Amino acid sequence: MAGMNKEFNPVDYGLDPIELCASNVENKPRIGIGLDSAVIPIKGTELSLLQTCDYFYPIVDDPYLMGRITCANVMSDLFAMGVTKIDSLDLIMQNSTNMTEKEINVVVPLLIKGFQAAASEVQCKASLSTITENPWCTIGGIATAVCRSTEFIMPDKAEEGDVIVLTKALGTQIACSIHHWIDIPEKWSKIKDIVKKEDLDKLLGQAICSMARLNHTAAVLMHKYNAHCCTDVTGFGILGHANNLAKFQKNQNLKFILEKLPVFQNVDKIAKTCNMSKLEKGICPETSGGLLICMSHENARLFCQEIESLENEKAWIVGHVEEGDGNPMALLVSNPEIIQAESTPNLTKFLEHI
């Protein structure tokens, strides 16, 4: 993979080539969207316990990077609530019954190491909670924080006139799944005329860097710039999560309008060629996606400037909040503006702990 100087190679560990990710598993959500985290007041105190549990199938083959991505994804639910300090983080795993003992002995420690490395970025010590067996490898975790009311942001205070900010580009799952097409002649033939193999390497690198990047900085800035509500964009796509956020508002006479879709380079072109219509409809699943935040226009402008200054990563104003008709919802405009998110993937910074 372009940009990776320590790419995981099973052969280096005496293993046969294996695919960790479940690229053949179709993502069809079976339950509705809930809140990002449980918020439980603690009796006799001014504190609340915020907790989230999330797990999924691996999306990349490198176990260390997959561990990092998993941790970023699990913590993101708390970051979406404006939590900046996580008190407890537990890793949950299910080994595939199809993996050999040797494969498990190599892959599992690397998954754990990647998970712990991401947790250490926010001074949180991750512990291993459970390892069980399953026909498919799954990985996830439980993140917990104990907060005062000023230390988290309930996702219910959007106002008419707010704008909507997105902190990461869209297209992570397309980028990861499409990269496997390089080795499948009948599928590669569908896209070889519009992208080169090195384009797909770069695309995968962009997606991995995005998924491995924590939403912690955005959570900190939410307090500074008076965010009114937030959610993270994951399995139900930007429109699905925006719609859920709209329905949770105290003001039930609001409508969230999405006008722009920032995507990784070439993702929209690939999706169109391959009839992957979910991307342009705003319902394409994401893994460890960005935060979707409502705030005033001026604060949003400053928020985007500061996050780029601190992380050298862009955030975008992608929509606005307007008066509704008593039926809160989110809508994606016809022919939304597609923004090409340009970046040079640098996976080295995520591999420095190996």
From TrEMBL:
One of its GO terms (molecular function) is ATP binding. Signal peptide: none annotated. GO terms for cellular component: cytoplasm. Residues 159-326 form the PurM-like C-terminal domain. It comes from the Eukaryota. The keyword Membrane does not apply. This is Selenide, water dikinase. The lineage of its organism: Eukaryota, Metazoa, Ecdysozoa, Arthropoda, Hexapoda.
